[in-house]
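During the no-cost extension, the postdoctoral fellow (Dr. R.K.) reprocessed legacy sequence entries with the updated structure-token encoder. One reprocessed record is reproduced below for audit purposes.
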Amino acid sequence: MAEYDVVVVGGGVAGLSAALMLGRSRRRVVVVDAGEPRNAPASHLHGFLSRDGMDPAELLSAGRREVASYGGELLAGRAVGIDRLDGARFAVRLAEGGRLDTRTVVVATGLRDELPEIPGLRQRWGQDVHFCPYCHGYEVRDSALGVIGGEDRSFSLRQAQLIRQWSDDVVFFPHRIELEARERELLVARGVRIVDGEVTRIVSDETGVRGVELAEGPMVSRTALFVGPRFVPSDELLTALGCELNDEGWVATDRTGRTSIDGVWAPGNVVDPTAQLINAAAAGSAAAIALNNNYLVPADVEKALNGHTEPTPAN
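Re-encoded structure tokens follow.
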């Protein structure tokens, strides 16, 4: 079985950026992608210089073409495990059967968003129910916006204050958060209206969100909503391999994405929930350069040295 220099697990912007740089470094690289991008529900991406407003699917399609142009391979499938072999080698097991032997692995599997269990919320996620105002706030500016409190109290309060930057008409629905007097004061001072009560349903039709329904009282009309999901890293491959975790419970890496396991890097949202597309792309590129500079090249030098024979001096 032919051995790869690098197997990249995950074909989002972090994984593709890593594969692109590795292909340009003349490394044998393959990207294994299950085809489930986190931003699939969104029709446009924003904040990515020169690609603002682009369809996220087209960005990934362009990335795949670029990776292939440098000899990188693209494999549709799902990696279900990573095994350490004898020496500095790994085997990436595939759900479809078989494995990919490789010298190093880049795991760029991202994260998943766990939303509050509110009927109607998931159906509009990525369309007119959002998380990040820097990604989608401008498109709903000056409209009737709502912020729904989630599990993370401090995040929800910060988000309500932040969303106010994009509209004068912002309603905060604490949902199951019991606000303290000071918290109410700060929101009201900012011009955020507070509507107490448990949210029971997001009302929408074919045109989009219409409003927020509560356990008591009339529906509150809104045209777009923001909510903070719980970020869950898709890091099962890394934790099963034994990668160390940081104090927050995420896989620990250095600034290049290097994990505690030699030969394994993890860039992007799988280790950093705050990374936007452009940050994840940069992280993938940085991981590839560090992997090549600090791991593959030294290993190649060592191999060459061990196989080197001093020439016999002439008499």
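The helical segments are 13-24, 56-69, 133-136, 153-163, 181-190, 236-241, 277-306. The domain at 116-227 is CATH 3.50.50.60 (FAD/NAD(P)-binding domain). The remaining legacy entries will be reprocessed before the final report is submitted.
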